[in-house]
Amino acid sequence: MSLEDYFKDQFKVDIKKLKLFKGESIFPVFPELTRDLQFFELSSIANIEEKNREHFVFLGFTLMSLDQLFYSYFRQSYDKLKSVIVFPKFGHFGMGGAAHVKSPRDFICESYKMNFIMEKVTDKHITEYASFFIKLSKDAASKLDININHLMLAFFKDKDLKPIDDIKRNEFLIYERLYDCIYDQFISNV
After folding, report:
1. How far is residue 121 from each of residues 34, 107, 109, measured CA to CA in Å?
2. CB of 98 closer than 8 Å to CB of 33
3. What φ, ψ does residue 56 adopt, rounded to 5°?
4. Residues of the chain below pLDDT 70
5. Could you write out the DSSP letters of every residue in 137-168?
6. At what angle do helices 123-143 and 148-157 cross, to 10 degrees?
7. Which of 19, 46, 118, 144 could form an SS bridge with 41, CB 3.0 to 4.6 Å?
8. Whole-number pLDDT of residue 91
9. DSSP code of 98?
10. Handedness of CA 108, 111, 116, 119 (dihedral sign)
């Protein structure tokens, strides 16, 4: 199944297979500490059919990246984005129930460590994932009246999305390949 077909036909079904949890702030006067966020347990990706897990992880990465970029750089459009993109957060609740959202890069790396992404992700798949990342980014930018160049510049400059240069473990190498492919494809079409 192609990534686009998976996104249209199966992705929303698979989201429902995740184990979700919400935080309860122990500081009732500061409800913004939880921001009414819903997180998912990474291990619950095992509930998704094995043949779909890699697609799920890379699509989750895309949606988490868009969520992070709009929240951080295009806050005026964030509420509209949340009505279009519905995907739980990756992270945890810390002291006092404060929400700690982890980066999409960490999601890719931790998914690899749990064998939801295979070590030998083919270049063909990386290219497909990068193309679909750019397509969904363009769609979101267009629907929310954001310049796609500004959105992608935010992606390439965001410290939580950049590859970590001095770490060469396999999970970071897969992320670096994806990031570089997104960069190459986007730049070649500008």
Report:
1. 35, 16, 13
2. yes
3. -60, -45
4. 23-37, 92-99, 119, 166-171, 190
5. HHHHHHHTT--HHHHHHHHHH-TTTS--TT--
6. 130
7. 19
8. 78
9. -
10. positive
